[in-house]
Amino acid sequence: MPDVTTTPVAVQFDDAEQQRESATIGMWVFLATEVMFFGGMFLGYAVYRSSYPMAFGEASRRLDIVLGTLNTAILLTSSLTMAMAVHAAHQGKRRQLVGFLIGTIVLGSAFLGIKFYEYFQKFEEHLVPGRGFALEGADPRHSQLFFSFYFAMTGMHAVHMIIGIVMMGVLIVFALRGKYSERYYNPVEMAGLYWHFVDIVWVFLFPLLYLVERA
Amino acid sequence: MSHHHHDPLDHEHYLNVSYGVKSWLLTRDHKRIALLYLISITLFFFLGGLFAVLIRLELLTPKGDFVQAETYNKLFTMHGLIMIFFFLIPSIPAVLGNFLIPLMIGARDLAFPRLNLLSWYIFIIGGIFTLTAVVTGGVDTGWTFYTPYSSTYSNSAVVLTALGVFITGFSSILTGINFIVTTHKMRAPGMTWFRLPLFVWAHYATSIIFVLGTPVLAISIVLVGLERIFGIGIFDPRLGGDPLLFQHLFWFYSHPAVYIMILPAMGVMSEVITCFARKKIFGYNAVAFSSLAIAILGFLVWGHHMFVSGQSEFEGLIFSALSFMVAIPSAVKVFNWTATLYKGSISFHAPMLYALGFIGLFTVGGLTGLFLATLAVDVHVHDTYFIIAHFHYIMVGGAVMAYFAGIHYWWPKITGRMYPETWARLAAVIVFVGFNLTFFPQFILGYLGMPRRYYAYPDEFQVLNVLSTAGASILGVGYLIPLIYLLWSLRYGRVAGTNPWNATGLEWQTPSPPSTENFEAPPRVEGEAYEYEEVKVA
Question: I want to staple A88 with a disulfide (CB 3.0 to 4.6 A). Which of A93, B27, B87, B411 is the partner?
Answer without folding.
Answer: A93
